[in-house]
Automatic annotation (TrEMBL), chains A, B, C, D:
This is L-ribulose-5-phosphate 4-epimerase. The lineage of its organism: Bacteria, Pseudomonadati, Pseudomonadota, Gammaproteobacteria, Enterobacterales. The keyword Metal-binding applies. It comes from the Bacteria. It comes from Symbiopectobacterium purcellii. Keywords: Metal-binding. SMART domains: Aldolase_II. Residues 6-194 form the Class II aldolase/adducin N-terminal domain.
Length: 228, 228, 228, 228
């Protein structure tokens, strides 16, 4: 697991470098699907002193396997998503500023441009509020449950993130690095959408043709962006 | 006092590092409760040339005990708060941009999300205006008086800061480091709330269950965030 | 071509330095008019590992002349503009935040001040939407076509950039360096106009006299700004 | 003049360090009142290559006294102000983002808080528009004339800056360093006022008592801020 710990450590350190977190307000995990083990950031440890060997290993039921620290308090959210979605290899949670503002406003982030469409197919959804019961019993697990309800039968890699109501963004990808990449994109897309909506609150979403064009330039069998 | 001077010096230097102050627009103090002495930043000294030994020591009545500089002109505000609240070990005043904007708008910062609820229980209050008499006679002391009126019988560590009307934020904590931490949080929370309110001016505050959940994850007997 | 590759490489590297791009979301090209060859950034290569020798050379019809990478997926847009406008020596495309927000809002950026008028004569236009057919057949080429339709018979060096609807800014100049300069200016002008319009949505454009004065201080036979 | 050139050079270099200018969009000057000579930035020279010896010396009528470059194209504005106001020892012009946005909106920056009142007594005025004739004949000189009209009989050190309509801020002080300080303050005050006004467009200005209190803490015979 040393290699995966190193990658998860570096993915966590990328969050402050990209300006996505204040203090310890974020966490990244990744899963080793063969062994059924998840590596995740420890809870409340400052980025300045954190080391790769401080990463915590748990199984998908949340049992501690390895580590001298408690795992992130958001671990049950990550595990709920890993159990449901085999496509997810890495998950990121942040309180990045503009994405969190949309979550506080309780609004989906509308698909207003090609920057958005390059990564997210359609609006970036905001979850429904949790009930008081869901908050009081297994709150973190229920955050994962409501994310899954919101995703429905969408391909999670075509909606590689969403915002939890009054809380903040969760993003994912095929591995931890891609999840962080999507978290950076979501914050920038949230900022652009916020700017556009303050100019004109009655904006129309992207035409279907343009949305398909941009998403398919980067994804799927006929992608022609990049070098592969 | 050399050790406390060093800590207060470093806490003051953290303000420009976190982007909370322009020029000399801020100050941090801490109190040694056993000796009844307060260490505070000198007035109007540039951060680039300030040294630990420039910190000023006064007693809680404001008498100069040690130091070759005048104490911060806001010292009477700090002392008024230290005299009233034994829970306060450190106090910070800044003119951080978004918190000050809410103070200029004369509005409480509404509790719109979990980022807020992790640190502040309920809205972050804005004080009432001072009367002309309060401004003209012992202005700085009266700023502390009106902060105390606004706090009322709340636990100051559950409302670890507020904004003074048309002025700016004051924050506190069990020591100077925690007070600075809360000042950073207040500014970020103020920024997120401003962004959310420009998207939708009619936002609802956090549900009570979610507010309790997040505040109690970090505070009180059943806290489970972090490592202790 | 080694020298032009070096210049185009440096012009591309200037984009992240000026905060205009996230990840690989931008590209710069330049043309050697004598040889009819265009040098452009490769598609999807990270700025941190890109080298001058990775730049791709194509002819103005888009045939690969030199390079071990695919050219930018936006190459057909650049070529369409080079074929139509002999005055263009360099072209830049970014998704810079504020310019893209105006593109998503579908609005021309109004000429509100002298900062704008120093570089752009009149509003910075937003193109019309592409039709579904234009998106589905030769999308990138058609982006160039609609930019040309929008320019009409204007001198492209007096309108050295515009925003493509729901997409983002394209800028140009007599060479790659000037094109990058204009992209930096467009983003700053877009930011100022956004700020001004949120204060007052019913702003008037610059008077004609002031617009001519500022534009002609820097351009044309009687320019008196700078040292030439 | 070598010493004043060095100071004016450093004051100019402080503008990009404080984030007030893009490219060459700003200039600082200072006057030697005994000799009647003004030192000012050369026109259009990049900050990265500018040296102290590149500063230009002119007399108060604008005649070139010393220098191998043309003076800033805004020199006649500076000279008009130096001729009228013996209190001015240094002048700064920038296109700093938020101050320029207020100028483009054509609005005075309202005195909304103590941050403002510490430096500016009352609103920061926006000049009237220049007439077409004023733009076409001695434009830069007339910019100084309209600033003086707007100041009226106010003490220029109590209103140490204003914004020129659809253009941007001009600031001044007893020397170049103080003028730059005031330009930094004006930009931050403009940003805070913009944020406050987007929360609540119907804000009230500071009470007279609070305004006098803060201004007089830093200015005049009974000042008690700082160390003098």
């Amino acid at each position: 697991m040393a290699q995966l710990k190193q990658r998860v450590f570096e993915a966590n350190m990328a969050l402050p470098q990209h300006g996505l977190v204040t203090y310890t307000w974020g966490n990244v995990s990744a899963i080793d699907r063969e062994r059924g083990l998840v590596v995740i950031k420890p809870s409340g440890v400052a980025y300045e002193v954190m080391r790769a060997e401080d990463m915590v290993v748990v199984d998908v039921q949340g049992n501690l396997v390895e580590g001298h620290y408690r795992p992130s308090s958001d671990t049950p959210t990550h595990l709920e998503l890993y159990r449901r979605y085999p496509q997810m290899g890495g998950i990121v949670h942040t309180h990045s500023t503009h994405a969190t503002a949309w979550a506080q406003a309780g609004l989906d982030i509308p698909a207003l441009g090609t920057t958005h469409a390059d990564y997210f197919f359609g609006d970036i959804p905001c979850t429904r509020p949790l009930t008081a019961h869901e908050v009081e019993h297994e709150y973190e697990k229920n955050t994962g449950v409501v994310i899954a309800q919101t995703l429905g039968d969408r391909n999670p890699l075509h909606t590689p993130g969403m915002i939890a109501y009054q809380h903040g963004p969760f993003c994912w990808g095929k591995d931890a690095e891609e999840a962080v990449h999507n978290a950076v994109v979501l914050e920038e897309v949230a900022r652009m959408a916020w700017l556009a909506c303050t100019l004109n609150p009655h904006l129309r979403a992207l035409d279907s043709a343009l949305q398909h064009k941009h998403f398919n330039r980067k994804h799927g069998p006929n992608a022609y962006y990049g070098q592969k």
